C-alpha cells in the first residue's frame, strides 16, 4: 500500500488535485496498486487562521 498526501490548498489547487488523483487512481488500478489517500487542509485559509504553514504534527 502506498500512502499519498493530498494538500489541495486554495484557488485552483482543489481542481488540480482532483484531476491528478484521477490519473493516479487509473494507473494504480491498471497495475494493481493500493493507494491510501491522506488529505491535509493546509493552504492560505489554514495559515490565516493558525499562522502555521505546516504544523510539525503533519510531518509525523
From TrEMBL:
Residues 3-59 form the Isopropylmalate dehydrogenase-like domain. InterPro entries: ICDH/IPMDH (IPR050501), IsoPropMal-DH-like_dom (IPR024084). Keywords: Manganese, Metal-binding, NAD, Oxidoreductase. Its cofactor is Mg(2+); Mn(2+). GO terms for molecular function: metal ion binding; oxidoreductase activity. Transmembrane segments: none annotated. This is Isopropylmalate dehydrogenase-like domain-containing protein. It comes from marine sediment metagenome.
